[in-house]
């Protein structure tokens, strides 16, 4: 998506952030007369099904219902984007359910996507519409992720992250809260996708925004006020700590050991402080969390164990060979994966750390049984988070293992260009070509 230019339009309707409970009472899909029957159906699919997968937060704090939907009732660009994602999500599910008209559904989704892009273009010139543009950008990322078009996903992601260099709307508490939620989602996607982008997105718009003083104090001793605050604070660890233990992997710096030790201590202290604050919140509101926020709380614990596993795996040269380095995360991952596997259909999300965490286990552990556990869970999950598809990761590891058995040299064609989507599909295509050259 192009960046917004300097504001030049004088008569622009400003997005009004209406209380979601009030909005749900006074507006329904039937109150939007411009929608066709098919558009209403997939708008409804987005609201009832897609939103519960895109975000792991409960209905009261789910970004798509709490913030995006009220604006979607007012602006066509968001509305058509939601319809497009709803239809694309239905198609994503249909591929496993044997939908009879997948081509028709794909055509409809693409048409709605194009309508959304056409209606968002006028907003590019208005800086006060940054929230609208960012929401559409996330919806476009969702659309491309569901379709498996990761090259386009990365373009939208890069454009969205660059918008954080601009001054985001912050005149009200609601606008500031929305900016924080948007930052968290773009940060997560940026970190997850950084290996496949030309430059690390954390050093561009995201870093500027997180270092601008708009974030919370990570050293605060107070309990978190809610799970959203805890989630935002944990996400800050990705950006505000310049040095992490794994940054020194392969380094020949004579002071490497002391640098790794110092980076580990700082990161561990921050994670410990975060854990204490989450524990305190849980003790204060465990009944509310059990009713409304169990899935979000479970994912926060999973993320905490992912961070701890990452720190522990670089604690010594032998850590990667010890199963106990990965056991706490694997146990939490199995618990989080269980309800998703029980659905017996593919799922898609912009949230969650299941796929990236299990992929880390599979690529880092030196224990064969631990790796088998991670890959088995990835396959059974049949889940996609952003551009990470669990079954793609399994196939990549299987092909890499097959290639490791090869003893003869492989002469790779330097002029060959992959045709698969960016990310892991490109790696899979390269591995297949290498094995194909050997008739394996």
Instruction: Determine the mean pLDDT.
Output: 85
User: What is the spatial order of strands in the main beta sheet?
Assistant: 1-2-3
Order of helices and strands: HHHHHHHHHHHHHEHHEEHH
Main sheet record: 3 strands, mixed
Q: What's the oligomerization state?
A: single chain
Indicate the percent of residues in helices: 55-70%
Discrete helix count: 17
- Strand-residue proportion: under 5%
Structural class: mainly alpha
Give a count of the beta strands, DSSP E runs of length 2 or more.
Answer: 3
Spans of at least 5 consecutive residues with low confidence:
1-26
Distance between the termini: 42 Å
Principal-axis shape: globular
Measured on Cα atoms, how large is the radius of gyration?
Answer: 22 Å
What report would you give on this structure?
The chain is mostly helical and 440 residues long. Among the domains are: 1-210, no CATH class; 216-292. The chain has 17 helices and 3 strands. A 3-stranded mixed beta sheet has the order 1-2-3, sandwiched between helices. It is globular. The protein starts with 19 loop residues before the first helix and ends with a helix. Mean pLDDT is 85; it is low at 1-26.
């Amino acid at each position: 998506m192009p960046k917004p230019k300097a504001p030049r339009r004088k008569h622009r309707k400003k997005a009004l952030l209406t209380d979601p409970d009030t909005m749900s009472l006074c507006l329904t899909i039937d109150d939007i007369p411009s929608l066709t029957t098919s558009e209403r159906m997939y708008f409804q699919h987005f609201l009832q099904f897609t939103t519960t997968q895109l975000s792991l937060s409960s209905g009261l704090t789910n970004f798509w219902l709490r913030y995006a939907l009220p604006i979607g009732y007012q602006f066509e660009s968001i509305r058509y984007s939601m319809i497009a994602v709803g239809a694309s999500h239905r198609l994503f599910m249909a591929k496993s359910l044997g939908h009879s008209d997948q081509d028709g559904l794909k055509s409809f989704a693409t048409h709605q996507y194009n309508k959304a892009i056409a209606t968002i273009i006028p907003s590019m010139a208005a800086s006060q519409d940054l929230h609208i543009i960012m929401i559409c950008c996330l919806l476009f990322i969702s659309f491309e992720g569901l379709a498996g078009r990761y090259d386009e996903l990365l373009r939208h992601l890069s454009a969205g992250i660059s918008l954080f260099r601009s001054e985001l709307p912050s005149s009200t508490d609601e606008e500031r809260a929305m900016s924080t939620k948007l930052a968290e989602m773009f940060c997560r996607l940026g970190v997850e996708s950084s290996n496949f982008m030309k430059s690390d997105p954390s050093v561009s718009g995201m870093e500027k925004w997180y270092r601008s003083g708009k974030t919370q104090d990570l050293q605060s001793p107070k309990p978190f006020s809610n799970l959203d605050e805890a989630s935002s604070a944990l996400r800050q660890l990705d950006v505000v700590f310049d040095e992490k233990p794994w940054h020194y992997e392969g380094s020949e710096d004579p002071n490497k050991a002391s640098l790794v030790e110092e980076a580990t201590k700082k990161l561990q202290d921050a994670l410990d402080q975060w854990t204490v604050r989450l524990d305190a919140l849980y003790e204060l509101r465990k009944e509310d969390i059990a009713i409304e926020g169990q899935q979000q709380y479970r994912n926060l614990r999973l993320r905490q164990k992912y961070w701890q596993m990452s720190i522990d795996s670089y604690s010594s040269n032998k850590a990667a060979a010890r199963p106990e380095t990965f056991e706490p995360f694997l146990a939490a991952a199995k618990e989080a994966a269980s309800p998703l596997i029980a659905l017996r259909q593919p799922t898609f999300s912009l949230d969650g750390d299941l796929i990236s965490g299990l992929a880390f286990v599979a690529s880092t552990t030196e224990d064969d049984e631990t790796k088998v556990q991670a890959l088995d869970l990835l396959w059974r999950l049949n889940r996609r988070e952003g551009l990470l598809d669990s079954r793609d990761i399994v196939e990549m590891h299987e092909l890499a293992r097959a290639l490791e058995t090869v003893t003869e040299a492989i002469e790779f064609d330097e002029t060959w260009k992959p045709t698969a989507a960016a990310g892991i599909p490109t790696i899979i295509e390269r591995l297949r070509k290498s094995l194909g050259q050997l008739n394996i």
